[in-house]
Amino acid sequence: MKRSTHAPHHLILTLSLIAVVAAGCGQPRPVRLRSPGDPTDVGLDTPRVLSPRDRWVLDQTTTVTIAPPRDAQTVHLEVALDEGFQLALDRKVAPVERGEPVDITLDAVLEPGDTIHLRTCGVREDGTRTDWQTATLVVALATPSFIDETSSSVVAEGDAPSFSWTPVSGAAAYDVEVLGDSAGAAPVYAAHVDPSSTTRTIDGKLPPGDYRVRVRSVRESTQGEWSEPRAFRVVPPPCAVIEPRDGEDVRDRSPLLRWKSGIAGASVFELDIVEIDERGNSGRRIVRRVDAAPEADGSRTVRIPDDLQTGSRYAVRVRELAAEGQAPREWSAPTTFTVLLHRLDPAAVVPIVVDAASHATSPAVSTDGSLLAYVESPLDESSPAEPLFGSKIEPRRKLRLLERTASGDRPAFRELAGAHVIFPGVRDIEGAVCHPAWGVSESRDPVLLLSSALCEPGSFPSETRGALFRLRRLADRQLNLRPYSFRVSILHPTVALHGDNRRIYFEAQNLACDSSPASAVIGEIWSMTDSGADLRLHGLGHAPVISPDGTRLAYMAPGTNGPEIRVRPSTSGGRPGRTIVAADDPTQRFRGLCWSPRGTHLAFARDAGSGFDVILVEVDTGIETPITGAASDDVDPAFLPDALAPHGFAGIIFASTRGNGGWNLYYAEAPGQSG
Question: What is the pTM of this model?
Answer without folding.
Answer: 0.50
